[in-house]
Amino acid sequence: MFNEQERHQLVSILESAEFFSYLSGDEKGKLLNLFEKKAVGRGRVVIHEGKRPGDTFYFIASGRVTIWISRGFWRKVFVHTLEENDYFGEIALLTDQPRMATVITEEKCEFFELKREHFKKILSGNPALKEKLEKMAQERVERAELERDKDQELGLAKSWIIYRIRKLLGVD
Which residue in 52, 68, 143, 70 sits closest to 106, CA to CA? Predict the structure, then answer.
């Protein structure tokens, strides 16, 4: 399925990713065989914010992606850049949460993909592991929602200040 270099890279990523730190060596070994490799061209949307449900987790084997979130109806805000050996979409493995951001390739990328249905096979025999990972995913969702709420409050405060300045200057 994977050549030796790809397998080594995938093992290395699995070892370093916090999300998979609760898995035993045996579980990680089983998980290796469930990944698929996929190439995606530059400028492609990998994940659409709000899409429900997400069902795929991605390790970046090569390339670079940018993360964007919506602010208002039309505005997208840059959040972060991810590169080789980074990962995204882990919440999709455990929840039916809509995608929390849009991910776009900035150059040709290769991903190691893991589908939720395959990951659940690993969790089915380990309820304690499933509980830990679900808690971790929920904490990440809550942090993201908190950040979104803070940003929304800041946007409202800015709008209010602009409104007051315009009123003060007599500009409507």
Answer: 68
* CA-wise closest residue to 17 among 116, 101, 87, 93: 87
How would residue 70 be classed by pLDDT, with cut points 50, 70 and 90?
confident
Backbone angles phi, psi at 58, to 5 degrees: -130, 130
Per-residue pLDDT tens for 18-56?
A: 777 777 888 888 888 899 999 999 999 999 988 877 888
Distance CA(102)–CA(155), nearest Å, equals: 21
**Contact status, residue 63 vs residue 46, Cβ threshold 8 Å:** no
**Domain with 34 in it:** 4-169
Cα atoms in the 13 Å half-sphere on the side-chain side of 48: 4
The position carrying tokens 């380990």 is: 126
86 backbone φψ class: left, alpha, beta (φ>0; ψ -120 to 50): beta
* CB 99, CB 61: distance < 8 Å: no
| CATH code where residue 128 lies | 2.60.120.10
Which parts of 22-171 fold into alpha helices (H)? Answer: 25-32, 116-123, 127-169
Of the candidates 125, 123, 126, the one whose C-alpha atom is nearest the C-alpha of residue 90 is 123
Specify the number of domains making up the chain.
1
